[in-house]
Amino acid sequence: MIILETARLLFRRHEESDLEAYCEMMADPEFRRQSGGKPLSREEAEESLRLIIDGQKNWLVQKPMGLLATILKSESRYIGRCGLYANRDENNVVIPGEGTLAYYITRPYWGRGLATEAGQAFIQYGFKELGLTRIVAGANAANAASNRVLQKLGFLWVRSGEGGGNTWHDYELSNM
Ligand SMILES: CC(C)(COP(=O)(O)OP(=O)(O)OC[C@H]1O[C@@H](n2cnc3c(N)ncnc32)[C@H](O)[C@@H]1OP(=O)(O)O)[C@@H](O)C(=O)NCCC(=O)NCCS
Predict the structure, then answer these.
(1) Mind listing the pLDDT tens digit for each residue in 62-85?
(2) Which of 110, 120, 45 is nearest to 83 (CA)?
(3) If you compute the radius of gyration of the chain from its CA atoms, what whole number of angstroms results?
(4) Which residue among 146, 153, 168 has the greatest number of ligand 1 atoms within 8 angstroms of its CB, and so is best to mutate?
(5) Using one digit for the tens of pLDDT, what is the confidence trace for 77-136?
(6) Closest CA to 2 of 70, 57, 58
(7) Rounded mean pLDDT of the chain?
(8) Domains along the chain?
(9) Closest to 8 in 3D by CA, of 92, 101, 82
(10) How many degrees, rounded to 5, is the angle at CA 23 between CA 30 and CA 32?
(11) Cα–Cα distance between 48 and 27 in angstroms, integer?
């Protein structure tokens, strides 16, 4: 089931058929370095996709929150995961009406504006379909592309902080 669509992309739940492309993406050291993690072995990536697919079973049918399989329409190819997930406070309690934007695009497709296109679609979806009032996002200070995407999407810088040996920038966008 297609949940959201843009000019070049469509977004749907993850499926077993995404396995090869998902494992390839998660084994890429540069992709994983930007995401703040280590490359995943085949076994680890298979387990990770299994958890994603199982987690989706709890989603509401019509309007799910979560990172969706991102398909490049012209190639019918899985190229990553993008979407919104719940925002939580310092006590790990979900903040009603708020979402966190995230995007992960596999490396051969970087630099084509696809993360920005996905981000625009999920901002619209979050505010209009999910009724969110605020969307937040965070990016490693060393991840210039991710920070740039957030700026292009109109996010405002809120604060910077340290975590896990990295410096992070936090951003927000409010539904005016
Ligand atoms: C971050 C990521 C999603 C960007 O995806 P993308 O589709 O290439 O992004 P876009 O093409 O929409 O925009 C990238 C922007 O960053 C800029 N950029 C890329 N690398 C850069 C660098 N090293 N320094 C400065 N700007 C850079 C691009 O020029 C572009 O800006 P522009 O349109 O003004 O020219 C992708 O690199 C990725 O998936 N990385 C691994 C996962 C990750 O880091 N996700 C974010 C977690 S917070």
Answers:
(1) 566 899 999 999 999 999 999 999
(2) 120
(3) 16
(4) 146
(5) 999 999 999 999 999 999 999 999 999 999 999 999 999 999 999 999 999 999 999 999
(6) 70
(7) 94
(8) 2-174 (3.40.630.30)
(9) 82
(10) 20
(11) 12
Query: Which residues lie below 8 Å from residue 125, measured CB to CB, with a gap of 6+?
Result: 4, 84
Q: Tokens 């050291």 label which residue?
A: 29
SS3 category, 99: strand
* Ranges of H-type helices in 36-101: 42-56
User: Using 50, 70 and 90 to split pLDDT, how confident is the model at 140?
Assistant: very high
pLDDT in tens, 141-156: 999 999 999 999 999 9
Whether the CB-CB separation of 170 and 159 falls below 8 Å is answered with yes
Amino acid making up residue 56: Q
* CA distances to 5, 59, 163 from 41, in Å: 31, 28, 25
Q: Ligand 1 — pocket residues by CB below 6 A? A: 31, 34-35, 103-105, 110-116, 139, 143-146, 148-149
Residue nearest ligand 1's atom 23 by CA: 144
